[in-house]
Design a protein that fits this description.
146 residues, Globin-like, mainly alpha
């Protein structure tokens, strides 16, 4: 077996965690935009919301993406989920968006991120699975306490 050439360009699968994190930070705006479009395309209740609530849902989705990137950088930082993601939501949003709708929102965000990273390394895909599980439980906890 030959050693890899030092002049060969690295493949997507060989990216370091630092490179992956930088890539995620660079595309976070794209992910948020794609999420809002998919919410509009797939969730009828989202399209019927008043603009202020749609904006608040968008902020929560964007906070979820940003929080995932921070968590992926340091998965040992546990208090991230509810504070980072649901802290972006105005209190009235929790009263006007059901737990079921919140879980649908989480599913759409996760699907958008998964679609974008499907050709990246296994650690990143595994991280998305762990994070999505934790954020779904955090959402349930927030609603249980409301």
């Amino acid at each position: 077996m030959r050693a890899p050439s030092p002049h060969r360009r690295s493949t997507v699968a060989e990216l370091t965690k630092a490179q992956t994190l930088q890539w995620l930070r660079n595309i976070s705006g794209e992910l948020a935009t794609a999420t809002l479009k998919r919410l509009d395309d797939t969730l009828p209740w989202y399209g019927t919301m008043p603009p202020s609530r749609r904006s608040a849902v968008g902020l929560v989705a964007q906070a979820g993406i940003t929080s995932f990137i921070s968590w992926y950088d340091d998965p040992t930082s546990q208090p991230w989920i509810a504070a980072d993601v649901f802290g972006a939501a105005p209190r009235e949003l929790l009263r006007s968006v059901s737990l079921q709708q919140t879980l649908q929102l989480i599913r759409v965000v996760v699907e958008v991120v998964e679609d974008r990273v499907k050709d990246r390394d296994e650690n990143l895909r595994h991280g998305i699975l762990l994070y999505s599980r934790e954020i779904a439980f955090a959402a349930a906890d927030v609603y249980a306490r409301a």
